[in-house]
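In the previous chapter we treated chains in isolation. Here, by contrast, the input contains two separate entities that must be folded as one system, with a combined length of 587 residues.
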Amino acid sequence: MKNTTATELYQLTVHAAVAGLTSGDFSAVDLTRSVLARIEQVDGQVCAYLTVAGEQALEQAEAADRLRAEGDSRPLLGIPLAIKDVLSTEGIVTTAGSKILEGYRPPYTATAVQRLKDAGALVIGKTNTDEFAMGSSTENSGYFTTHNPWNLDRVPGGSSGGSAAAVAADEALASLGTDTGGSVRQPASLCGVVGMKPSYGRVSRYGLIAYGSSLDQIGPITKDVEDAALILNAMAGHDAHDSTSLPAPVPDYTASLTGDIHGLRVGVPAEYFIDGMEPDVETAVRTAIEHLAGLGAEIVPIHLPNTDKALPVYYLIATAEASANLSRFDGIRFGPGGKADRLLDNYRQVRGRGFGREVKQRIMLGTYALSAGYYDAYYGKAQQVRTLIKRDFEAAFADVDVIVSPTSPTTAFPIGEKADDPLAMYLADIFTVSLNLSGMCGISIPCGFDRNSLPIGLQILGPSLGEETILRAAHAYEQTTEWHARRPILA
Amino acid sequence: MKLSIEEVRHVAELAKLELSDDEINHYALQLSAILDYAEQIQGVDTSSVPPTPYVLPLSNVMRDDELGECLPNEAAVANAADAKNGYFRVRAIFEE
């Protein structure tokens, strides 16, 4: 590993690239070519991208350079970004990592992506994901597994593993992921980059291929906290196309990056320091908490008593919602069709062959939890326990400003280690799912490395619409440590 | 808690999934293990606890009933496996 002082354009953060473009040090075409060359150089090993849209990206970069010469100064003008393949991009193949959408070209663009484009950004490619965002390693992708740039024999985390690996390997300045139970924060942690899940409703879900509709949220994966704030600035806000997007005003999130966390009340939940956590992870996170105290924060021991119920509640609710959401994939309006003569047989055939093993398992689990005779015991009960989990957070945030914990109990695990054991894989999300159930916001930032030189993530959680506070805390930590500046070395 | 092969077949039919015998056996084991794990919430006292189906304080979000932008017909059917004259073509629903 090494500390970067950027010598190549592809190594830049978004804000450094914006500064360079603005002062005329290089063009958007130079920048885009540099990122495309980097993808060419290392993606054979990392396998972060499902689709690289190089030609379209270069055309848009040329257009961005022309516009800049004419005085255009939109905040992300000419910045190439990678987009998780569950987000619809007009004219660019979007598969959600599934064979059931092979070759699908969406007729419209997701609002979150469109807003980045409206701010001047361009889409350089679509990144690999566990099929329909269901997984914690990208091993459930219908296409291939992404490799962790820090150790190519290990998983990048998931489901937004392609987006996290692309940023860590400098194959993208920044990317978008989606987080239903930790799918932005956990891969960001395992790849040593910054990953943020905004509050539910902060970013429109229009054009996001749905997994669990009451949990899904789109978030940035970036090289530093300032970039997360810049991208959230462009993406956040109400959208008439999503009735669950919040009508709350959008502040300038970069204004919250003051570096000052004196008096910030930081809750440390006892339930998040459990048996089974790797000792290096615990040491790094406890050291990070001491560091926050050194910056003037007040450390407050707290309890989130229903934490151990979060995983079963999550898997019942997410799969129930998924079983309904994924009923739309019937081989008629999109994706490869079937060959059966009768309509119902065709549905069964298209779905049975087009969905992968884990997706079918989750559809089955959700269907069962919603079926007659079991609804009250599973789905209904899970919704009630969800209330208790949410109340835990509400009570905690009455007393503290943020809550900190490890993002993941382990660092990146070897490819194949948990692939045949769904329950072991589900445990990778043990520290992240509660946040989605409660609808609040969180961010994972690099806070150290384990004995195998694999990155460790610190999770900072805030209440609904508490983005400014978690960004402020994350930024203050980041700017007084050097973990975020390290990059893996890829030959 | 153990799902029988018959129950797994029934759920697969509800979900309209064609599964091989190997898959049926696999899911019977896996789903039983996951449901066993999920059993732990049954002991939580939730009498008088309301459910949380979604977290937002919004309800009945409406808009004016005015015609907005629509997808052009050709774009809407462009990804269909089978389309004719701007319609999705499907197999007959009713049998003779």
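The helical segments of chain B are 5-14, 21-38, 73-77. The longest strand of chain B covers residues 83-84. Compare these points with the single-chain example from earlier in the chapter.
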